[in-house]
Request: fold
Amino acid sequence: MRIGELATLLGVSTRTVRYYHHQGVLPEPPRLANGYREYGMRDAIALARVRRLVALGLSLDEARDVIADDRSRELPEILAEIDADLARQEQEIQVRRQRLAEVLQQAEAGTLGPEDTASPDLLAFLRAVDLPASKAAAWDREMLVLMDTVAADPERGRAFAMFETLAADPEATERGHEFYRRLDELAGAEPGDPRIAPLAATLAEYSLRHMRPAAAPGPPGFDAEVIEPFLDGLAPAQAEVVRQAVRLIAGG
Reply:
């Protein structure tokens, strides 16, 4: 098949295929006597692998190493690995569907609690950091559960990578309680209160310190305005702290 047919088969543009060739990620077949390059099944599999690896968060350099390793193996071995990967995905989907069935059953029975949609990883993190009985902490807990419920798997995985580093930090609970105490103190303050900017800067600095590079949002892919619909549960000054902190995080 020609490059256009390969691109269509994998749902990308020919420009993307040529870019992968240029970066050395995707091997480029030699030209035939008629001047065209002929792509085969191995090329389609390699392109599918590149797209999969990039979607999982690997850099093109890292993807290049994986594809180079694939080229040293026989096609049946590569196909068997892909089949095993699909089997793992199928098992994950079955587990998720079972969890969904349980949640639906709880919802129909009226017994669905505010955290019943959260994953075991998030619940373990919440137990580890021991959030205080605070309005600000309750809002943060609800946001974490919401993110865990609606986020796609790659984003959820990157978030939990950050949660793991936080849970392993002996100062995490102490610092968290301090942040929530300072937020609660702003419940009756005005949006221009001088305590807002220092607290926002401290929150942003602490968050970025515990974010792995792949987890840290940054321009242009992260829109700080996405937080706006979720600030209604906070007092104006508290909302401004979160707003400023998120913008600082988005700017890196």
